[in-house]
Design brief:
Elements lengths: L1 E2 L2 E7 L9 E2 L10 H17 L4 E4 L11 H18 L6 E6 L2 H20 L6 E10 L2 E7 L6 E2 L2 E3 L6 H13 L2 E11 L10 E11 L8 E7 L13 H12 L6
Parallel strand pairs: 2-5, 3-4, 4-5, 6-11
Antiparallel strand pairs: 1-2, 6-7, 6-9, 7-8, 7-12, 10-11
Helix pairs in contact: 1-2, 2-3
Length: 258
């Protein structure tokens, strides 16, 4: 199994015989739990990057004297490895789960590979999380003209980055796409219907806010304008953004669209 430039494998061997830069020891904690295993795994991975190690070997953390279940330990450690590799610029080229016993090897091989395969081959095809904003300014709302397909007018927005909250994402995207800062930011609704985005399955979390500054289109937009809500019906919108704005109008008029 490879994630980016790092090879991840489960082997049956005595960990002391592994030719790696770092060998992680399983501390004899009689009350091992999820938090202690996560922290131990996370600290070891961070330490590896700090000293620029290229390889590291783990035992089944918490499963010795700690008595923690093998399956749970395997999944926790796989989660921490994936989080570390995707959330950092890591120099690790090899991460080895080293199991001396037959049972531990079989459990880790099944659950580490199974979990990482699921996350990479299933989750990475979506659904993806995006944020959009209905920005009130100058008596109207801000819309952008898309320069890439699907074409048309749209609410400004974009995808949430890894390790980013949706609130931080929408503020970042609005600065990039409209040059505006947001005031009185509130969540409006989440739109998740398959097919709402013709490219792939996208969950769009829509916010409302007031804009601060002078609206200006970002480099990846063909244009930007502030439109009156009464003029929305005559415009050609991408995605389901016309429906979103119509729902917003209903809410403003005192009707719950949901």
């Amino acid at each position: 199994m490879r994630i980016d430039n790092c090879e991840i494998k489960v082997v049956r061997s005595d960990i002391k015989s592994m030719a790696v830069d770092i060998i992680v020891k399983d501390e004899d904690r009689p009350n091992a739990n999820e938090v202690s295993i996560r922290n131990e795994c996370m600290k070891a991975l961070k330490k590896a990057d700090e000293i620029k190690a290229r390889s590291i070997a783990f035992p089944a953390l918490g499963c010795g004297a700690g008595g923690f279940p093998l399956k749970a330990s395997a999944k926790i450690m796989a989660q921490e490895v994936l989080k570390h590799l995707r959330g950092h610029s890591s120099g690790l080229k090899e991460i080895v789960f080293c199991m001396d016993g037959k049972e531990a090897y079989e459990v880790f091989e099944k659950n580490v590979d199974g979990y990482l395969n699921y996350m990479i081959t299933k989750q990475q095809i979506g659904p993806f999380v995006a944020v959009d904003a209905i920005i009130e300014i100058d008596g109207g709302i801000v819309v952008i003209e898309r320069s890439s397909p699907p074409f048309g007018w749209a609410l400004p927005g974009g995808f949430v980055d890894y390790n980013e909250s949706i609130e931080d994402a929408v503020r970042r995207e609005m600065r990039e796409e409209t040059s505006l800062d947001l005031i009185d930011l509130k969540q409006f609704h989440a739109y998740s219907r398959p097919g709402r985005d013709p490219r792939f399955h996208t969950i769009g979390i829509v916010f409302t806010a007031k804009g601060k500054g002078a609206p200006k289109a970002g480099d990846d937009a063909a244009g930007l304008k502030v439109v009156k809500l009464a003029d929305i019906g005559a415009m050609n919108f991408a995605f389901d953004h016309k429906q979103i704005i119509e729902d917003y109008i209903k809410r403003k008029n005192g009707t719950d669209p949901f």
